[in-house]
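[scheduler] slot 2 assigned
[scheduler] job type: sequence-to-structure, two independent chains
[scheduler] chain ordering preserved from manifest
[runner] begin chain α
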Amino acid sequence: LSLPLYVYESSSLNPKFIFADNLSFLQFVFHTYTTGFTLLNGNGTAESEEHPLQQKQIFHGLGAISYAACIGALPLVFMNRYTLKSSLTQLVVRKLLPAPLLGLMSAFTVAVVRSPEFENGIEVMDRNGKVVGVSQKAGEKAVKETALSRAVLFGTAFFLPAVLMYFVERAKVVKNPRALASVRMLMITSVLAGMLPVSLSMFPQCGEIKRAELEPEIQSSTEETELFYNRGI
């Protein structure tokens, strides 16, 4: 995970990547990686014959990747296009905006590529692991939880290293550009290593949902007060 995040950060903070083509390509690489991970680690509910789930997810994913890459590059491209070089603009566009934008786009790609889960539903089970039914509401809950955890993971993993690097550069502890790149990579890896278990533990892998929140046909098919589902990663 640290390599694609480093690629994204380099494209946003390094002036030599200010051109639209470079920004869009590098962010396309990052979002392709994370979207592929999402596609492989979603809920395992089988697709219906009418809805070829994997093919639909791939098309959704390609659209989400392209959109996220363009939106991620847009602030820097806009700043460069209109030569907005004031210190306030530089602070907002290069330091403050990338972290929430990355978190938002990471959540967006999760929601798009896993949209068939809340359109077609996912399996819900009782305490013994017996499948009770397929629920759209459980699918919606699973996707929302995963999108939020992904936003927290990448938003924080981008924000903290950027803040730490600001103080490192200001203190002039490291002056060599290559050494600075190595320090940035180390910080990203360290923050990711700490944030990964935090984001995964925000919501349990085996999610719970109350029977009263599910569709009427599922409520009538069981007496269990709480049912369970696979949230995915």
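[runner] end chain α
[runner] begin chain β
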Amino acid sequence: SFNSLNHDMTLAEFKFIWYMEYSHRMWGRVVGLVYILPAAYFWRRGWLSRPLKGCVLTLCGLVCFQGLLGWYMVKSGLEEKPDSYDIPRVSQYRLAAHLGSALVLYSASLWTGLSLLLPRHKLPETHQLLRLRQYAHGTTALIFLTALSGAFVAGLDAGLVYNSFPKMGERWIPDDLLAFSPVLRNIFENPTTVQFDHRILGIASVTAVTALYLFSRKIPLPRRTRMAVTSLLAVACMQ
């Protein structure tokens, strides 16, 4: 990496990158300890119910798996590629897996914590409420997919290919959108396609969240649920 890309880097610039990486690793280890040590204490004291023990073990496994994925991702950036003269970088596939695992871990931890702290609303199972729940789950999946596509953008430095919006350069659909063969490779390895997909998914996510908010306004919902939907719209717009 130093010879092919950063040969003019100063020691101070290298230290900045090194400490960023070191801090990230140490923070991840602290997160693991902050989770595992209290969990072991609560388990030993007998404060966990049988279902909760299952949740604790699952989250513990996810914490360890996340660390393993992080090591596996960084390893791909250190491997020698004698047949490639490309800029050294980690695998975009492993980066997406690392980010996806982190999102699952965070969401599962938050869901478990809120389930214990806040009593569940017992609402009548109307047709509208069922549709709202289904639509919320679909929107969640779309947002998750958008975030994963962002990992591919980062892994391929695809954000550097086009920096105009809403058009990509002078065109709505760029010429090199399907330049790779076979066609499926473009979705994961063509920087232009990866950025194009991320744009489309981002717009679709904001649209879905807005539609979810408007639909929720037609249904009588508890104050806490309404606050959650409104907050979701605010964060989507800010993002």
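[runner] end chain β
[qc] chain β: The chain has two domains: 7-118, 121-238.
[scheduler] slot 2 released
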